[in-house]
Write a structure and sequence with these properties.
It is a single chain. The chain is about 20% helix and about 35% strand. It is of the alpha+beta class. The protein has one domain (about 15-120): Nuclear Transport Factor 2, Chain: A, CATH 3.10.450. Strands 1-2-3-4-5 form a five-stranded antiparallel sheet, with helices on one face. GO terms for molecular function: cysteine-type endopeptidase inhibitor activity. This is Cystatin domain-containing protein. InterPro entries: Cystatin_dom, Cystatin_sf.
């Protein structure tokens, strides 16, 4: 595991960018995001009540929490066709972000999207009590 911390504590958020690509910093998380991509998209669409059925997501940072497995907290930049930024107030770059929580327990083969929080800005810190996706 590339981003470990004391059991129960949440690690410092790590950037994901050209200098810190996810495939290099945490290939396991990259695999999990790919595995859950359609669930993330569906949960986002339901939570935001948008009509665009094809938003795309780009991970920009993540943090880890070691529990009986690993909780990954991931900030995603959201791109929607025709979106004007009207739902996202102040702070950041005028783009919309969402935060997700993924629970991963490799010894039981458990991977689950366990939280999503929408209409975030670039500067919003991770929320640890995110609504469970419906």
């Amino acid at each position: 595991m590339s981003a470990t911390n004391a059991s129960g504590g949440i690690g410092k958020p790590k950037p994901i960018d050209k200098k810190h690509p996810l495939w290099k910093s945490n290939p396991e998380l990259k695999r999990l995001l790919h595995l859950l991509s359609s669930q993330i998209r569906s949960a986002y669409i339901r939570a935001s009540s948008i009509t665009d059925s094809s938003p795309t997501f780009e991970p920009v940072s993540y943090a880890c929490q070691i529990v009986a497995g690993t909780n990954y907290y991931v900030k995603l930049r959201v791109t929607q066709h025709g979106w004007s930024g009207k739902h996202c107030d102040g702070g950041g770059d005028g783009k919309e972000y969402c935060h997700i929580r993924i629970f991963y327990q490799p010894w039981t083969n458990t991977t689950a999207l366990t939280g999503i929080s929408i209409r975030k800005t670039k500067n919003d810190p991770f929320e640890y009590d995110m609504p469970v996706p419906i």
